[in-house]
Amino acid sequence: MEVFPSPLESARFIAGHSRDVSVDEEGARRVAESLFDRASAAEFGLAGWKSLHELNPRAASAEAVDWVFLVDTLNFSFWSEQEEQKYLVKYKSKTYSGYWSLCAAVNRALDEGIPITSASYFATMTLDQVRHVFRSDTEVPIPLIEERHRVLNESGTVLLEKFGGSFLTCVKMSEKSAQKLLRLVLENFPSYRDEALFEKKRVSFYKRAQILVADTWSVLEGKGHGSFDDISSLTIFADYRIPQVLVHLKAMKYSEELMKKLREGTIFQSGDREEVEIRGCSIWCCALICKHLLELYQKKGQDMREKINAVLLDYHLWDYARDHREEMKDIPFHRVRCIYY
Ligand SMILES: Nc1nc2c(c(CN[C@H]3C=C[C@H](O)[C@@H]3O)cn2[C@@H]2O[C@H](COP(=O)(O)O)[C@@H](O)[C@H]2O)c(=O)[nH]1
Question: InterPro entries under this entry (predicted)?
Fold first, then answer.
């Protein structure tokens, strides 16, 4: 049986050997305290995935699960070199940027009668068809269009050959275990294997694989085939926004030399030491915030393990980063062009 390193153990190891990034335990505690009241609010919970985001599916159907699979297969690299020159998609008289531009393009295609979420379609899509579906409403195209074409064909082919073209089939095989679904995704879909070498050790982040499991849990509303009893075993999803918000909230710190490189807009490569430290420390920092949050509730005699986990903390912090873009503009995000996040 193939061994997949645990993202949480990887994060612990990276945080323990990191040079340019540090987790601030006091800062993490303060973030937990600031979230304390909000964590028991409805928006923080699972229902927020649909109620807060108009582009997410309303249904909990097999088609909705396929929508999640397609989107998370392409859920990477939306940042633009120049902030003012970026990929944008207009949908139902609203203009979307970043991750939401991907969702808007998918929904636009579905409205045009293009079965973009069907494996039988995206398994054999041509590059021109991908260019058409994800066309931009500015002169800036979606980044990594050739890579998106490749992962679409690859993932669609596997979904057809091994799971009858339906990601729900894969979910059913996981028998309500998030870790089993994570393993099935990693074993079968190579583009999801988000790993690196750090201090000669194989470490993992599995950002798209873990968010795929989390979004599947969310779209199925934690019920039926999506009632994962081990959903709390997932970590946050190490993208390029969570580190930014953790530094903004002073739960994580960068060295002067790293801050300088980030401010200059240095483009890092997947697996660079600084990139691995940023991603691993982000995961570790959020694990500490979760721990402190649960302890705060325990002191109040409330067992919130069903309501607080890294997934819901991640969604909250990611949405916070979106809503506080202006306030966070002095904190640079790290730039890597890759298919992992
Ligand atoms: N850690 C984490 N990373 C996330 C997401 C999402 C979308 N999930 C939302 C959908 C339903 C839920 O309610 C979530 O709110 C996208 N990303 C990553 O962000 C980056 C894009 O950023 P920007 O350029 O600002 O749009 C890119 O790496 C993308 O992969 C998340 O949830 N967590």
Answer: Q_salvage (IPR019438)
